[in-house]
Specification:
It is a single chain. It is built from 3 helices and no strands. It is rod-shaped, with a radius of gyration of 24 Å. It has one domain. The relative contact order is 0.09. It is mostly helical. α1 packs across α2.
Length: about 90
Amino acid sequence: MHLLPQEGILFVAFAIIVILLIAKLATSPIQAMVKLLVNSMAAVMLLCFISIVGEYWGIHLPINPVTILLIAILGLPGLLLVAILYFIFI
């Protein structure tokens, strides 16, 4: 019975790690785009909710690509930034 030499085992382990890293790098942009898409949809729903509820107090935040992306990328700080900028300039 012939066993793999130690170098062969290390080579196979290294090859598996390299393949997994390449697969991770290949799917990372897709995962980032999916995360941005999900966050953008959540931002639209949040802005619509604020607009509907805010009608009673006269609060309205604009729903446009810039505000959606700011909120999708930054999260709650992005929402606060949009609200502060909106109330400063309007």
